[in-house]
Description:
The structure is a homodimer. By secondary structure, the first copy, chain A, is of the alpha/beta class. The first copy, chain A, has 2 domains: 2-152 and 200-349, Rossmann fold (3-Layer(aba) Sandwich), CATH 3.40.50; 156-197, no CATH class. The first copy, chain A, is 39% helix and 17% strand. A 7-stranded parallel β-sheet of chain A has the order 5-2-1-9-10-13-14, sandwiched between helices. Chain A has a 3-stranded antiparallel β-sheet with strand order 7-6-8. In chain A, helix 1 (10-23) packs parallel to helix 3 (65-74), helix 1 crosses helix 14 (324-349) and helix 3 packs parallel to helix 6 (130-141). The radius of gyration of chain A is 20 Å and the shape is globular.
Amino acid sequence: MNITVLAGGIGGARFVRGLRHLVNPTNGSTSTQGSPTDSKITDSNITVIGNTGDDIWIHGLRVCPDLDTVMYTLGDGIDPERGWGRREETFHAKAELEAYGVEPTWFGLGDRDIGTHLVRTTSLNSGYRLSEVTRALCERWQPGVNLIPMTDDRAETHVVVDDPDNPGQQIALHFQEWWIRYRATLPAHRFVIVGIEDATPAPGVLDAIAEADVIVLPPSNPIVSIGTILAVQGVEQALRETSAPVVGVSPIISGAPVRGMADACLQANGIETSAAAVAMNYGARSSGGILDGWLVDESDVESVATIEGAGIACRAVPLLMSDVERTASMARACLDLAQHIRRARIDQTS
Amino acid sequence: MNITVLAGGIGGARFVRGLRHLVNPTNGSTSTQGSPTDSKITDSNITVIGNTGDDIWIHGLRVCPDLDTVMYTLGDGIDPERGWGRREETFHAKAELEAYGVEPTWFGLGDRDIGTHLVRTTSLNSGYRLSEVTRALCERWQPGVNLIPMTDDRAETHVVVDDPDNPGQQIALHFQEWWIRYRATLPAHRFVIVGIEDATPAPGVLDAIAEADVIVLPPSNPIVSIGTILAVQGVEQALRETSAPVVGVSPIISGAPVRGMADACLQANGIETSAAAVAMNYGARSSGGILDGWLVDESDVESVATIEGAGIACRAVPLLMSDVERTASMARACLDLAQHIRRARIDQTS
């Protein structure tokens, strides 16, 4: 089975780790107690299309936070507490940059992480494409999935806010500045992905959507992670056209983001912070959207009928990613829902 | 008094620290027991013309080992044991580059050091000249001297050796590879400074030589440190023409380099590893060379007559740089010898 996942950072990475555990219980996990699997699932190939809208050139280095979070999480190099960056990380170069008075100082540039950025930056400057560089970096990390950036082109998310220094004026901050420096507390008027008009999908992206048996939207940020991937030329259309069921996992539980500040992003786009509203925003494929199925948390069980009423198959299951086993169960629920959708289609057409 | 020093790395940096202590005993030293000084000396400005022939672009970073050694040593950021790089340094980014299998792996790229290299590299890539960037970096370190790179142009020393992998063939290694990776054990046929033909002195270099009251060659490597500075267009001629006495300190004591592998460099140029041979190689100004005076170690006292016979005023003094006080005494001996040379000239002309 070919499983394609559109992923942002921490939420997407943790989901894929659970999915990989389901597909191959011995990979990247010390547990031998796998979820029950069938041979179709254990034969699966996982392709992850990673968001690069959060990418930033900083101190001359090209940093790809979401790709690296996926790579480090699946390669067991992630800091398990923070959820981003390397384990046993130090921040000595960052302290030096501050001592020199060089801005920006708010970005968490770790020393081990810099090793990755140096390899990436020199490779990009030598003419390699980001997708090639990502593949090369993954040679080391062996993530057990095929990780592809959404695009090889530069397309960086900016956030239009009231200028904190000039009342009455608006400015566009780089997403990272808004997210990290301001902790998303400056109300966002809108998101602008600079360069997205010219961003074409990286090699393999459209094929991974067209040739998938199931497509999963993990509990990543629907606006600045998955929304950004969808904004790349042809991606949303490919999702509408693929024969694979498209199943998503709600990043909102009981009206709040599981982690991160997705509510600030939803508000900017006028979307309620609820599992149902996010599903409705993606929309049912039957009515021009991209979703066939949607998983909500058990605590949001009352929204299932609304979502199904909009033409999106919906299940309420525990959406905890507190450990790999529980996450694998979530992934299993995705695949089960996809299977249900596939069967329902066959029933319809027969 | 204007004192101009042509410096390489560790030896030059330590000498200048002693010289600065002589000029300003409270700067950068916890000792209050200064050497006896007169007001002429304590009013001195020190200009250091730094060797950049050892510079290397590595992993996309521009590294200036000699400039940084001077800057860190005078700014109290140096690792006192190694004599190069930052104190309390870590090498996590370097370990990552190795884990990715990215060459070269032999260069000691420290994490704190990378902070400096990132500032320098982004500034250079933004169009600033190395001399401007060096001044900006020194804003932080406050070395108490005016540190100028010999040139803003790229001119990197290479070493022609027998190719260890292809018998019968010669290859040119970057100086750093020869020095660090091979510990200068591959016999050098010759040194080639790639780009030196087009390297012009950085702003301030020729003025610092022309307007000096004394010029000091510290115990830096005579071939690949001071020799490289001399190879920059116009520098050697400026030294021949300046009215200031040019006084050097032997880097060779009792037939061996005080530290480093200067002997391997001298051999390549057919120069004996002795205090006298190095002085003769610089040559007396009276016979077309650049030296007016030369300090040898007490243990080399028997060479004083030979050197003086060649027209170079010579003294035998303790050439220990084991601490700042002793180094200040060496620097004092340089200034005393310069004063002696100046007086002898006046006696000659009157």
